[in-house]
Design brief:
The complex is a heterodimer.
Chain A: H1 4-19, H2 25-32, H3 38-58, H4 80-96, H5 100-109, H6 114-131
Chain B: H1 2-5, H2 10-26, H3 35-43, H4 61-80, H5 91-99, H6 112-115, H7 117-120, H8 123-142, H9 147-156, H10 160-184
Helix pairs in contact in B: 9-10
The chains are: A mainly alpha, B mainly alpha.
């Protein structure tokens, strides 16, 4: 039962990303060609709503289910890891048209070849883990 | 009913994605889908090879549950909440893609030219999916997050590292789509 709420959040997430077409390879292509506002509208309104939510919760009006303050962990400071890692991620995102959330969702829509992409992504993460200490961060 | 069965507009979809982030924060967790790749490595025994994978992955089972839900959500959305509308792409996009050899752009969620079983049997098709997956998996961990962790959660909480990462996402994406994809197709 403890996990039921997370399962339902996932179901909701999957439905929203399919219905918004954010899982569409073609929408990602269109976005990176600046030929449609659709994806920018989704990401923009998601961030705007997110900012609003976090600003309200900062005022202490909203608490977590356990009564604690809403807390977003701080990312470590740095530059190289974010710009280089981000760029590598961007290459992959635009090539396969899916980031880690949509990969799983697309599998659910019946794109079986996503299993290969997911396996390769797990391997990519493994390679990072091995090389981590040798990479500039 | 058509309102649900047709694709949802961006101004509805964006706030709904923010609700996913808000719900997870409300439950005391953080929205970040790529962390699951690290968890899967740890479950598979990657801790034997690198410290990075030596952590208590049982603490991350909630996030894998979100993944299972997302797969189910994808199934439910396509089988019960969709009609056969095709993605309403910019006509210029459609024309461009047809020129590159993609049939019926927008009729499916992903191009058959890359994802169909036929495409998988060609070395090029298989290689593209593997390279794409490797880049996403490596890049997201190096950058410490993906679209959900950096673009949505990180930017919503006004964090500078996330802004740098998202700029990176776009540098990579723009180069791939505008300069590399035309060479591949």
């Amino acid at each position: 039962m403890k996990f039921l709420k997370f399962l339902l959040v996932g179901v909701f997430f999957g439905i929203v990303l399919v219905k918004s077409e954010a899982v569409s390879w073609f929408r990602i292509y269109e976005m990176f060609r600046f030929q449609s506002f659709h994806m920018y509208g989704i990401i923009g309104t998601a961030i705007a709503s997110g900012v609003l939510f976090l600003q309200i919760s900062k005022k202490g009006i909203l608490k977590s289910s356990k009564g604690a303050d809403i807390f977003v962990p701080k990312k470590d400071n740095g530059f190289i890891r974010y710009i280089v890692g981000g760029t590598i991620f961007g290459f992959g995102w635009a090539l396969i048209g899916a980031c880690p959330g949509p990969m799983y969702i697309l599998l659910g829509t019946g794109v079986w070849s996503m299993i290969i992409v997911i396996s390769a992504a797990i391997l990519g993460t493994f390679i990072y883990g091995i090389l981590k200490n040798k990479l500039p961060h | 009913m058509d309102t649900i069965l047709n694709p949802w507009p961006w101004y509805i979809s964006g706030p709904l994605i923010a609700i996913v982030m808000a719900l997870l924060l409300y439950f005391g967790k953080t929205f970040g889908m790529s962390s699951n790749l690290r968890t899967l490595c740890a479950i598979g025994g990657a801790g034997k090879f690198a410290d990075f994978f030596r952590f208590n992955w049982k603490d991350q089972l909630w996030n894998l549950t979100v993944v299972v839900g997302a797969v189910l959500g994808g199934f439910i959305a396509t089988h019960y909440l969709s009609n056969d509308t095709i993605t309403d792409l910019n006509p210029t996009t459609t024309q461009e893609l047809q020129g590159m050899g993609f049939d019926n752009p927008g009729a499916t969620l992903v191009p058959n030219e890359m994802y169909s079983l036929d495409a998988l049997t060609t070395p090029k098709g298989l290689l593209l999916l593997i390279i794409g997956g490797l880049l996403v998996g490596f890049g997201t961990r190096y950058a410490g997050g993906c679209t959900s962790g950096h673009a949505i959660t990180g930017l919503s909480s006004l964090q500078k590292p996330s802004l740098i990462a998202v700029i990176g996402f776009f540098i990579g994406g723009l180069i791939m789509t505008n300069f590399i994809l035309p060479l591949i197709f």
